[in-house]
Design goal:
The complex is a heterodimer of chains A (131) and B (251). Chain A is α/β, with parallel strands linked by helices and 131 residues long. In chain A, 46% of the residues lie in helices and 16% in strands. Classes of the chains: A alpha/beta (131), B mainly alpha (251). At the A-B interface, helix 1 of A face helix 5 and helix 6 of B.
């Protein structure tokens, strides 16, 4: 079972979607959530504070979710972070590109609360297995 | 796509030619009209009827615009606008309409479910409270008191189930707002598309404005950028640079 105090960073350029994901995480028992409006802001937050999990959109100004994912994976202090992509980009190329860049999971918008819970649990299981 | 474009071009040319021919026949000045094609902005000096110079001018302008578009590759840009951008924008707007309607229905359905639950809780708790008030006024028999305690206990056991149902509906209302992110992205694409079309049409307008008026038009259009361009080398500041840039982009 995942630690309910783990700290999430929700990255999306739309405040409504950030609020929705924050509320869903709270509903699943994770109340320690911070938000960033694009990849650049997210990277800054990740580098200045300790986070345990990243949930990121793809299509954002300044820095996209894929670029953010690549930066995280190439940063020795951040590369271990689980990154769940939650995006409207539903093409196979997108999903493959995200997987190749090291995404921990991929959810296509619009999504349900059950989907988010399932993907989170799967990632937690993988994390547990890796240890 | 290119076949269609050629078809369109042929049709345009045929239309143009038919106008010129009709004009020439009516006037008996076919030679003059063809010779004039280089300077369409000059109206033919001697015309018998009022409508003819306008037909002729319109024809020449159409020809000039058509040739310019072809030369500069704008016919492709406009063809793209007509063939793909407008239907694409239409599809995207239809998608927005569908998503927003769906969201509105989800919210209304959720409130339809939640409202009766809340009303029932309100009515039943008020009724129980009224009977407890009776108890405190010593108006209840022992049997009635026992009944009240029994019913109150049953009600309290039921409340968490009812509130959980309501909370599920509140979650549903929250999830219904996910359309805003999706429609927002789509609206942004439609706006970008409209801007692209606008700039293409502006380019066509600039290219087809008489030279003496063009300078005037360009200052108007480029006013903002020139102000920002002061002391910068990474912006285009002259017509020559514009031409160079367009050429490098394949126009």
């Amino acid at each position: 079972m995942a630690d309910p105090n783990m700290k999430f960073l929700v990255v999306d350029d739309f405040s409504t979607m950030r609020r929705i994901i924050r509320n869903l995480l709270k509903e699943l028992g994770f109340a320690n959530v911070e938000e960033a409006e694009d990849g650049a802001a997210a990277l800054q937050k990740l580098r200045s504070g300790k986070f345990d999990f990243v949930v990121s959109d793809w299509n954002m100004p300044n820095m996209t979710g894929l670029e953010l994912l690549q930066k995280i994976r190439s940063d020795p202090t951040l590369k271990h972070l689980p990154v769940l992509m939650v995006t409207a980009e539903a093409k196979k190329e997108n999903i493959i590109a995200a997987a190749q860049a090291g995404a921990s999971g991929y959810i296509v918008k619009p999504f349900t609360a059950a989907t988010l819970e399932e993907k989170l649990n799967k990632i937690f299981q993988n994390l547990g297995g890796a240890k | 796509m290119s076949n269609m474009a050629n078809g369109d071009s042929d049709e345009l040319e045929a239309l143009f030619d038919s106008i010129v021919r009709a004009n020439a026949q009516a006037d008996g000045q076919a030679g003059t009209l063809v010779e004039r094609s280089g300077q369409p902005e000059e109206p033919p000096p001697s015309q018998g009827r009022i409508t003819e110079p306008y037909y002729s001018q319109l024809g020449h302008l159409t020809r000039k615009l058509h040739e310019t578009l072809k030369q500069l590759g704008y016919d492709k840009a406009l063809e793209k606008a007509v063939d793909t951008m407008i239907p694409d924008a239409r599809d995207r707007l239809a998608y927005i309409a569908a998503l927003t309607q769906q969201a509105a229905e989800r919210v209304l359905n959720a409130t339809d479910v939640a409202k009766p639950i809340q009303e029932e809780l309100e009515i039943r708790s008020s009724a129980l409270a009224a009977r407890w008030d009776c108890l405190f006024r010593n108006e209840l028999s022992v049997e009635e008191f026992k009944q009240l305690v029994h019913e109150t206990r049953g009600f309290l056991e039921e409340v968490p189930r009812k509130t959980a149902d309501t909370r599920a509906q509140l979650m549903e209302i929250m999830m219904a707002q996910d359309f805003q992110d999706l429609t927002g992205q789509v609206i942004k694409k439609v706006i970008d598309m409209a801007q692209e079309m606008e700039s293409e049409l502006l380019k066509v307008l600039v290219e087809n404005t008489p030279v003496e008026k063009r300078a005037q038009l360009e200052t108007g259009l480029l006013n903002g950028p020139v102000v920002n361009a002061d002391g910068r080398s990474d912006v285009v500041t002259s017509q020559a640079q514009v031409a160079e840039l367009l050429e490098s982009l394949g126009f």
